[in-house]
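dumping this here before i forget
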Amino acid sequence: MSILMHLSSEAICSKVNPMEIAVAVVLGNPRYEDCSQHGICRVDRLNEYEPCNCPHQLPAVIRLGDAGVESLVFQRNNMSQATFEKHFETSLFKIDTQFSFSKEFQRAINWPGDVILIEPGFYPLLKSIDKIEISFQ
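structure:
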């Protein structure tokens, strides 16, 4: 379970204040045209995303800090039963393939590093009545 963030020398000198950004997340594996399997297929800022025919596209809040992605938080009422069963039924969220955030996304949020990556692995899920959080720390 690891998250890699490759920082430029400029970014090493300045800390990133923790930030929360409303996003649209497509769950699934980007190696498959239909984003089937497990992981994160795409992340866009919520005010810039284009709805797709993906059955597992959800609004969320991403929390970013010095180490990159800290968490993704989803509202349960925005989630179909099929999405819950496929991605959130167990206590771990599975990522089959490394996910890297697009340069456009990173530019839009003024990210000081070179690239933000989420490595394949199993990440703990924190669940409450109304929210599900994937913890990447």
